[in-house]
Automatic annotation (TrEMBL):
Residues 604-628 are annotated as: Disordered. Residues 636-753 form the Response regulatory domain. Residues 610-625 have a biased composition (Basic and acidic residues). The keyword Transmembrane applies. This is Sensory/regulatory protein RpfC. The lineage of its organism: Bacteria, Pseudomonadati, Spirochaetota, Spirochaetia, Leptospirales. It is an enzyme of class 2 (transferase). SUPFAM superfamilies: ATPase domain of HSP90 chaperone/DNA topoisomerase II/histidine kinase, CheY-like, Homodimeric domain of signal transducing histidine kinase. Residues 382-603 form the Histidine kinase domain.
Length: 762
C-alpha cells in the first residue's frame, strides 16, 4: 500500500548488542527521538541495540528499507544478519568510527510473515544519540520515489539559493554602493552550502570517507555562525543607526562564541553547539527591534523584511529541534531557507524600486537646482554687462571732464557724479562676488606676496585719503614677518580694504591700528593674524548678530555713514573662510571695535624677491608728464566695439595718450582692418552683433592670411571668472573690464609695449 514510517516504540537493550528474548527487563524507546527508557529517562552516550518485529502479509514481495539519521555509527540487521553498515560501531570513544549516511537497502525474503529488524548503534562522538529521523519500509518503486523526491527537494532549494546568490552578486558588481546585494548573496550562498550537510538526504555524506565526521560537525557549526553573521551584517546595512548598535553588538558577540569552543573535544563541542543554537535564537529576537521600528516608520519593504526574519527565526528553531533529535521537523529546515531567500529577494526588489524613484527625484532636483544656478549666473552676467556698458560712458566722460577747466560749482557737481558712479560700481562688484562665493565658483589664485612691503603700501594708500590731524592710521608688526607669503593677493587686499574702509567710515577722529602677527606652525607654514582696531563709534550689542549678514548695515540711523551695499563684511567673512581662516570681532559701543582675522599660509621662497620687485614696478605705471605715451611707445591700436558711447570714450582716452586709433563696430570689419592695417594692439568687445569677440580672436589666431598677429585684449562688461578663462582659451592675450578707466588703459599699453608686443597665445 506504499511506504511505512517505522515510528513508535522499539525495544532497546542498553549496552547489550546480543540480548536474549527471555530477558526479564525489557525497555522501550521512541523512534525517532533521543534514546531513553520506558520512563523517558535519557540514556547517556554509549551503545545499545534497538529491535522491532514487523508483521507483513503473505506473498509479500521484496521490501526495501531506507534508514534515517542515526548517530553515530550503526549496523542494520535482519534476522541477525547484517545487511548495511554506516561507520564502525564500538563500545568506546576510541573504538568507534562515526559516519552519517542515508541509503536504501533490500531486505531478505520474508519468513513466517515477520521481519526481525535490529539496529546496533554506538554513540560516543555526539551529545544527542539515537535515531533522529524516521526509517521507512516499502517497495522498491515506493522507496525510490520517496528518496528521489527528497533529493529533488534538496536540489531545488539548493539551486534556488545559489541562483539568488549569483543574481545579487551580479547586481553588486553593477551597483557597488549597494552593499545589501553582496551581503544577501553571502547569506544565500552560505545557506546553500549548509544544506549539503543538513538537508533532507544529507547527500554530501554519501561521498565522504570514514574519519571525517568530526571535521564535518565542526564545519556545520562554523557554517551556522557564518550564515548568522552574514544575516546580522545584512540587517545592519539596511537599518544602520546608532540606536540599534547595542542589538548588533550582542548578536556579533553571541555568534563569535562558537569559535572559542572549536578546540574542545567533539562531545563537549556538540553540547556547546546545542547551547549556542538556543542562545543565537534568543539574540536573534533582538533584531526584531530595528525591523519593527522600520515597519512603524513605513520604510520601503519593511513588512516583507519582517516576514522574512520571522521565517529565518523559524528556520533556526528547526535547526535546534534537529540538534535535539525531535521527530518530524528536520526535513522541513530547507524550506525555511527557501522562504527566507524568496521573501528577501522581494524585499530587495521593492527597496531597489524605491531607491530608483528616489535617485530619479534627486536627479530632477539636482537638474532644477543647476538650472536655477545657471540662470542666476547668466542673469548676473547679463545685468553686469548691461549696467557696466552705460557706466563706461558715465565714468569715462567724468574722468575726461575732470581734466578740463571747471568752476568750483561744476567741480562739486562732477565729484558727486563720480562718487555716485563709483558706489554703483562697488555695489555691482559686491553682488557678483557674493554670488560667486555662494555658488561655489570662487577660486583662489595663489602667488608670492611680499608681506611687509604689501602691508606698508596698503596702509599708505589709506593715509593719503584721511586727514592726519584728525585720524591716525598706524601699522605695527608684532614679530618679524616672512619675506614672502603664498596667498591670493587680490582677495587679501579686498579683505583689508573692507575692514579699513569700515574703520575709516566710522572713526571721525582718533586712531586706527593694524596689528600683524605671524605664528610659525612648521618649517614652511605660518598662521597670519591681522587685527584692525579703531576708536570709532563701536557696535551695539543687539546688532552684533547681524554684523556678517548680507545687506545688513549696523548703523542705519547714520545717514552719511550708510553709503555702501551692506555686503562688505558678509563678503569679507566668506573670503576668509575660503582662504581657510576665520574672523572675529570685539566691540564696545561708543569706544571702538577690533576686527581680527587669521588664516594659514605657506611661506614663499626668497628667490621670489627680485621677480616680485620687477612685477611690482610694472604694475604701477607712471605717467610721463613731459611727453604723451604715444611718443614713447608708437603703436597702431584698433578698438572693436559696437557701442557708440564706448567707442567715443576709448577714442578720447587714446587721444589723451597721444594715439589716433582705428575703430570697428562689428566682427567682419575688425577682421578686414586687421588684414589691411596690421595693428599692434587690438581691444575687442566680447559682445558684438554679427560676430562676438571670442569668434574674432579664434579667426585671427587660425588665419593664415594675416601676416602680423596683433596682441588681442578682451574688452568686456562681464567680470565673471569663467568669462576670463573663455577669452584666454580662445587665443586672447589679456582681459580688461568695463567701465574703462584711463589709468587701466595706460597700464595695459605699457605692459604689452614693454614685452615687444609678443602675444602669448600665437
Amino acid at each position: 500500500m506504499g511506504n511505512v514510517s517505522l515510528n513508535g516504540e522499539w525495544r532497546i537493550d542498553w549496552k547489550d548488542w546480543n540480548p536474549t528474548n527471555d530477558s526479564p527487563n525489557k525497555e522501550f524507546t521512541i523512534v525517532p527521538g533521543h534514546w531513553n527508557n520506558s520512563a523517558f529517562e535519557k540514556y547517556p552516550a554509549g551503545f545499545a541495540r534497538l529491535s522491532l518485529t514487523i508483521l507483513v502479509p503473505e506473498n509479500t514481495k521484496t521490501l526495501y528499507l531506507q534508514n534515517g539519521v542515526t548517530r553515530n555509527a550503526f549496523e542494520v540487521l535482519v534476522d541477525e544478519k547484517t545487511i548495511y553498515k554506516s561507520g564502525i560501531i564500538g563500545e568506546s570513544f576510541s573504538s568507534e568510527i562515526p559516519h552519517l549516511n542515508i541509503q536504501t537497502v533490500a531486505l531478505p525474503d520474508v519468513k513466517n510473515n515477520q521481519i526481525q529488524l535490529s539496529l546496533k548503534i554506538s554513540c560516543f562522538h555526539y551529545h544527542n544519540c539515537g535515531v533522529a529521523t524516521p526509517y521507512s519500509l516499502g517497495t522498491h518503486s515506493g522507496i525510490s520515489k520517496s528518496y528521489l523526491g527528497a533529493i529533488g527537494r534538496d536540489i531545488f532549494v539548493l539551486t534556488s539559493l545559489l541562483t539568488l546568490a549569483f543574481f545579487h552578486f551580479v547586481l553588486y558588481i553593477f551597483w557597488r554602493d549597494e552593499k545589501t546585494h553582496i551581503l544577501f548573496a553571502a547569506v544565500c550562498f552560505l545557506a546553500a552550502m549548509r544544506l549539503l550537510s543538513i538537508g533532507e538526504t544529507r547527500f554530501i555524506y554519501n561521498y565522504l570517507p570514514l574519519g571525517v565526521y568530526e571535521t564535518m560537525v565542526r564545519i556545520n557549526g562554523i557554517s551556522f555562525v557564518l550564515v548568522y553573521l552574514s544575516f546580522v551584517l545584512y540587517v545592519k546595512e539596511i537599518y544602520n543607526s546608532e540606536k540599534y548598535k547595542l542589538v548588533y553588538r550582542i548578536n556579533f558577540f553571541v555568534a563569535s562564541l562558537l569559535f572559542f569552543a572549536l578546540p574542545l573535544n567533539l562531545l563537549t563541542f556538540s553540547k556547546f553547539l546545542a547551547f549556542h543554537l538556543v542562545l543565537s535564537l534568543l539574540a536573534l529576537f533582538g533584531l526584531l527591534y530595528p525591523i519593527i521600528h522600520g515597519v512603524l516608520l513605513k520604510k520601503p519593504g519593511s513588512r516583507l523584511f519582517l516576514f522574512s526574519v520571522i521565517a529565518t527565526m523559524f528556520l533556526f528553531s528547526l535547526d535546534i529541534l534537529t540538534e535535539f533529535a525531535k521527530k518530524g521537523t528536520a526535513y522541513l529546515a530547507q524550506y525555511g531557507f527557501l522562504v527566507f531567500g524568496l521573501s528577501q529577494a522581494l524585499f530587495i526588489a521593492d527597496r531597489m524600486i524605491e531607491n530608483f524613484k528616489n535617485k530619479e527625484r534627486l536627479k530632477q532636483e539636482k537638474e532644477s537646482a543647476e538650472a536655477k544656478v545657471n540662470f542666476k549666473t547668466t542673469f548676473l552676467s547679463t545685468m553686469s554687462h548691461e549696467i557696466r556698458t552705460p557706466m563706461n560712458g558715465v565714468l569715462g566722460m567724468a574722468q575726461l571732464l575732470q581734466q578740463t577747466n571747471l568752476s568750483e560749482e561744476q567741480k562739486e557737481y562732477l565729484n558727486l557724479i563720480q562718487f555716485s558712479g563709483d558706489n554703483l560700481l562697488l555695489l555691482i562688484n559686491d553682488i557678483l562676488d557674493l554670488s560667486k562665493l555662494e555658488s561655489g565658483q570662487f577660486e583662489l589664485h595663489l602667488e608670492p606676496v611680499p608681506l611687509e612691503k604689501f602691508m606698508k603700501d596698503f596702509i599708505n594708500i589709506f593715509k593719503t585719503q584721511t586727514d592726519p590731524n584728525k585720524l591716525k592710521i598706524e601699522l605695527d608688526f608684532l614679530n618679524p614677518p616672512p619675506a614672502f607669503l603664498i596667498t591670493d593677493q587680490r582677495r587679501f587686499a579686498q579683505v583689508l580694504t573692507n575692514l579699513l574702509s569700515n574703520a575709516v567710515k566710522f572713526t571721525e577722529k582718533g586712531s586706527i591700528t593694524v596689528l600683524v602677527e605671524t605664528i610659525i606652525l612648521k618649517k614652511d607654514m605660518v598662521r597670519l593674524k591681522v587685527s584692525v582696531k579703531d576708536t570709532g563709534i563701536g557696535i551695539p550689542d543687539d546688532r552684533m548678530g547681524i554684523l556678517f549678514q548680507p545687506f545688513s548695515q549696523v548703523h542705519s540711523h547714520l545717514t552719511e555713514k550708510t553709503i555702501g551695499t551692506g555686503l562688505g563684511l558678509a563678503i569679507t567673512k566668506k573670503l576668509i573662510e575660503e582662504m581657510g581662516g576665520s574672523i572675529s570681532v570685539q566691540s564696545v559701543y561708543g569706544r571702538g571695535s577690533n576686527f581680527t582675522f587669521q588664516f594659514t599660509a605657506q611661506i614663499g621662497p626668497e628667490s621670489s624677491e627680485s621677480e616680485q620687485h620687477s612685477n611690482t614696478k610694472e604694475t604701477i605705471p607712471k605717467r610721463s608728464s613731459d611727453s604723451p605715451l604715444a611718443e614713447k611707445y608708437p603703436l597702431k591700436i584698433l578698438v572693436a566695439d559696437d557701442d557708440p558711447i564706448s567707442q567715443k570714450v576709448s577714442s578720447l582716452f587714446l587721444k589723451k595718450l597721444g594715439y589716433t586709433n582705428l575703430q570697428a563696430e562689428n566682427g567682419e570689419k575688425t577682421l578686414d582692418i586687421v588684414r589691411s592695417e596690421s595693428p599692434d594692439l587690438l581691444f575687442v568687445d566680447i559682445q558684438m552683433p554679427d560676430m562676438d569677440g571670442i569668434t574674432v580672436a579664434k579667426c585671427i589666431r587660425q588665419s593664415k592670411t594675416i601676416a602680423k598677429q596683433p596682441v588681442i585684449i578682451a574688452l568686456t562688461a562681464n567680470v565673471m571668472e569663467e568669462e576670463k578663462h573663455r577669452c584666454l582659451s580662445a587665443g586672447m592675450d589679456d582681459f580688461m573690464t568695463k567701465p574703462l578707466l584711463l589709468r587701466d588703459l595706460d597700464f595695459m599699453i605699457r605692459k604689452w609695449a614693454k614685452r615687444d608686443l609678443s602675444p602669448s597665445n600665437r
